Structures are given as structure tokens and as C-alpha cells.
Amino acid sequence: MAKKSRAKAIYVLNGPNLNLLGTREPDVYGRTTLSDIGDMTAARAQSHGYDVVFSQSNHEGELVEWIHEAREAAAGIIINAGAYTHTSIAIHDALRALSCPIVEVHLSNTFAREEFRHHSYISPVASGVIVGFGANSYLLAVDAVASLIEEAAI
Length: 154
Ligand code: CA2
Description:
Elements: E1 9-14, H1 26-29, H2 34-47, E2 52-56, H3 60-73, E3 74-80, H4 89-96, E4 102-106, E5 128-131, H5 136-153
Parallel strand pairs: 1-2, 1-3, 3-4, 4-5
The structure holds ligand CA2.
């Protein structure tokens, strides 16, 4: 029998330009669209008994607002902040205010790319980081966040 869904969802937040996935730069980001990734993560989260709130924005302030919402509504958060990863103190500060597990995720191996992608403002406030596995990074992140939520509940 399927596990019953818990009240709180896993928030999966995506930053700027990730809406373009699957349309350009397939050599770097693959051919899977963000909508496909949304479906895959929802199915994986369901297998752990969680619903997913999956969102994307090109606007830093909107991402900050969703992180504030997650303070009450999320059991855990997965975030691919896109280029804001490397620039945003606002997203760093918003994440600091969360008490639930935070998993930072990237499609590409940012450490094998340009130097400006090597620094992340998200990593110091994340429980863990998953980079470089393409769309599969999101599935690994769901497994990771689900186990962190379970551990915290013990
Ligand atoms: O590898 C990742 O997941 C990134 O977060 C993707 C960001 C990049 O700025 C980070 O350094 C690493 C960029 C997302 C833009 O995605 C596009 C997809 C297709 C075409 C153009 C951009």
C-alpha cells in the first residue's frame, strides 16, 4: 500500500533561465525540460510519501518570497538557484532563516566549469550539495532531502 502523504511538501525551487532547459545548450544541460524534471521529482517524492511544490522564477525577489513561504509550508527544500547561486546574498539570507533540510542541486558540474561558478552563496547554508548528474541530480536530491527529513523526525 502507498505511504500516506504528509501535510508538508518538499519545495523544489528553480532560478533564472532554467525554464529554457531542453531548448538550448543540450551539451551542458541535457535535453530534459524543466517540466519533465518537475514530473520526475514529483513521482520520486511520492515514492517517499511527499508532495512537491515545484516552481521556477527569473526574479530574485520571487525566489526569496517562496523561501519565506517554505518556512511554514515545507518539510524540506531543494534549490537550484541558477546563476543566483553565485551572486545572491538575498537568497543566502532567506535560506538561513529556514529550519528544515536544504539540498542545493545543479545539473552541471559547476566545479568543472568557469571559475565564477565555483563559488556558491547557497552551499554554506545547505545541508548538502548535489552537482553534475544532469536531471538525475534532482532525483538524488529528493532521496537526500527525504532521508534528512526522516532523520530529523527520529
Ligand atoms: O548546472 C546548473 O544547474 C546551474 O545552476 C545552471 C545555471 C548556471 O548559471 C549555474 O552556474 C549552474 C544556468 C541555468 C540556465 O539554463 C539554461 C538552459 C538552457 C539554455 C540556456 C540556459
